Amino acid sequence: MGRQSEKQVARERRHSRVRRKVTGTETRPRVCICRSNKNLYAQFIDDVNGRTLLTVSTLSKELRDGVVNRCNKKYAERLGELSGNKAREMGLKEVVFDRGGCQYHGCIQALAEAMRKAGLTF
Length: 122
Known about the structure:
Largest sheet: 4 strands, mixed
CATH topology: Nucleotidyltransferase, domain 5
Structural class: alpha+beta
Order of helices and strands: HEEEHEH
CATH architecture: 2-Layer Sandwich
Helix content: 25-40%
Shape: globular
Number of helices: 3
């Protein structure tokens, strides 16, 4: 087996540090962001009951348009608007943001700001 890269180790360390402090409830779920090389994913999770309330990604029908790489600021903003609107339809107003160990800039920042514009508070 190969050794883990320094970036991966740093991301896992940041992620464990964030997860120690952040938990979601049914009224205020945790928004877990996962970023791959090609796509972005957002899950609204109730940690108390162990349930995923809502899942939205750039692979959703609303955002899929034939482009291969959808992990950029443009798609992050569209994903933030879509997930914020769907969460508001479910009656969610407040959430806890879990950046998944990623640094808060670029796609993650654009996604968070678009969720705030859509009406979610965190």
